[in-house]
Amino acid sequence: MTPYEMGKNLLMKLQQWGKSTTSMCFASLAIALMDSETLVYEYLPNQSLDKLIFPASSKDHITLNWKKLHDIAMGIAKGLEYLHQGCDQQILHFDIKPQNILLDHNLNPKIADFGLAKLCSKEKSVVTMTEARGTMGYIAPEVFSSNFGKASHKSDVYSFGMLLLEMVGGRKNFDAKASNSQVNFSEWIHQQLNEGEELKIRIEEDDDIIIARKLAIIGLWCIQWNATDRPSIKVVTQMLEGDGSNLTISPPFTARYTTHVGAGVIACPSSEELTMISELE
Questions:
Q1: Which residues, in sequence order, are CB contacts of 131 under 8 Å at separation 6+?
Q2: Where exactly are the transmembrane stretches of this chain (predicted)?
Q3: Given pLDDT bands bounded at 50, 70 and 90, which one contains residue 239?
């Protein structure tokens, strides 16, 4: 099945489930069945999140304040919570990354690109897969290799955590051209927080460092190696809603396998995008 066919089937099922249209989720409006089959999307003038958090990626870069970054993070988390718990069936996205977060005219986030998504019952706690799927730098360990367990809704939480850390750092967590010391981005953030060092981020108001620290701590909890150690997206939303004063820094971690999966880096494959896979139902 092609990515388009998977996306079309997913959207048709969502229409059957009552035209799910949460404001923080995907922006598809309809499927046009004329001479050709076309997906129709809401127009989102601010493009994708990567254009805003990675200055080098866009000459029309917009500087976001930390309050707006926090609001965007909250919107993404609530959108994921809806996918995981708000539909008749659980929807696992498997490709959460800044490029797949679209922004409307008010910079409200919309989760997009469901080409790799997986539908499963809410009672099903894990998904069996034969091969990794997603984008390097955002793939949870258990999605990359079955040696780390089974894929589940916690795999999306991992990807969301890497996205949060990129929002804090204003840079990509994955750089195939950089040395190992440069690429271990999440480990560097953990070390800075654990030692009480500054994150070397842009601070304009007194509350900025509080917001940045909160996002960083939550992001680090989301990328724990063992899925059981990660919070659910519902708990993540609750953490974001709090003031961050009660948040503790996650345990230290080190790279445990020999390829890029966000925090661990030794070598990388030739292609950034991994192929879609077939599942064992």
A1: 275, 277, 278
A2: none
A3: very high
